Amino acid sequence: MEELHQYLRKTGSPMSVDLFDFDYWVHCLAEFVLDKCFINIKDLSYGVENVPIPCVNELDHTQPDTIRYSTQREPTEGVNLNLDPNFLCSCDCEDDCQDKTKCQCWQLTIQGATLGGRVPNTSVGYVYKRLPEPVTTGIYECNSGCKCAVKTCLNRVVQHPLTLKLQVFKTAPRGWGIRCLNDIPLGSFICIYAGRLLTEQGANEGGKNYGDEYLAELDYVEVVEGIKEGYESDVLEPEMPLSTPER
């Protein structure tokens, strides 16, 4: 992959290195095809995504609830997001950020991975736009203030639009699920989980009315702390945003 990346750079190719894979067991052209189904919606995003997202049901005639598809997070009343560009740490790399020691954004990821007494690991994070191991402390991607190329930077992954072929499908015991229709290389990014950001109160009210099966708690630290013995449950904490999907 290193030689391929160097070739793409020297030839000035607009293609990104994650468009390639050399693992013989990855059959990227093979595509899953459902023999028959009762419901077949051609594109659940109705043109919002770069790639159509079909929705199928081979079990019964149930259709998914009507939704307004969104590719962006949407904060509701009471949810405050820090979107100040001055808050961002930006790099001045011009080598697709392949040298992690010189990229300020990479260094934030590496420094964060040492929290909690962890052993420093300079190789943490993406490897040619794929993630071989989870980074529980988070990844700091390059941003709008960086000088690196948006399409080919090795530290820009989740910010790009959807490229993989996905399919929403009905399962017998678990409701609606989503799957990839093609083989994908190990560590490839699939898609984001976007939707409305709710306060805790708003999420509780919505859960009572519509169910909370697809709510995602964003403040994982508080979730873990809340179940520990001796947790200060009487301490008033600010309302933290929750995410409910619109996908």
- For the secondary structure, the number of strands is 8
Q: Helix- and strand-based class?
A: alpha/beta
Helix content percent band: 10-25%
Compute the average pLDDT: 85
Question: Could you give a short account of the major beta sheet?
Answer: 4 strands, mixed
Oligomeric state of this protein: single chain
What's the overall geometry? globular
Distance between the termini: 33 Å
Give start-end ranges of low-pLDDT stretches: 221-240, 243-247
Q: How are helices and strands ordered from N to C?
A: HEEEHEEEHEHE
Radius of gyration: 21 Å
Supply the number of helical segments: 4
The percentage of residues in β strands lies in 5-15%
Q: Which sequence of strands runs across the widest sheet?
A: 1-2-4-5
Describe the structure.
There is one protein chain. By secondary structure, the chain is α/β, with parallel strands linked by helices. It is 15% helix and 12% strand. The protein contains four helices and eight strands. The strands form two sheets. It has a four-stranded mixed β-sheet with strand order 1-2-4-5, with no helix packed on it. Strands 3-6-8-7 form a four-stranded mixed β-sheet. The longest helix has 11 residues, at 200-210. The radius of gyration is 21 Å and the shape is globular. Mean pLDDT is 85; it is low at 221-240 and 243-247.
